[in-house]
Design a protein that fits this description.
This protein has 3 helices and 3 strands; from the N terminus they run ββαβαα. It is an alpha+beta fold. The protein has one domain. Strands 1-2-3 form a 3-stranded mixed β-sheet. β1 and β2 form a beta hairpin.
Length: 69
């Protein structure tokens, strides 16, 4: 079981906000496995860093909106 940061079922889009805890090799491997599972479920995972959210929220919103039909 995985807990997603944000999920839009209409677009089958998961948005993950990644902080420093995602920089270890173990965390990166976990993220790869999670992304593979999401792909098998036809869910696209968009990864955004905390830094991006904190420094350029407009760019983050643009990146997210690009996935909507």
């Amino acid at each position: 079981m995985y807990i997603l940061d944000f999920y839009c079922p209409a677009e089958r889009l998961a948005v993950e906000i990644d902080g420093d805890s995602h920089t270890t090799e173990e965390a990166r491997q976990h993220d790869v496995e999670r992304d593979a599972t999401m792909t098998q479920l036809c869910i696209h995972t968009l990864r955004i860093t905390n830094y991006e959210v904190e420094t350029d929220i407009e760019a983050v919103l643009t990146k997210i909106s690009a996935y909507f039909n």
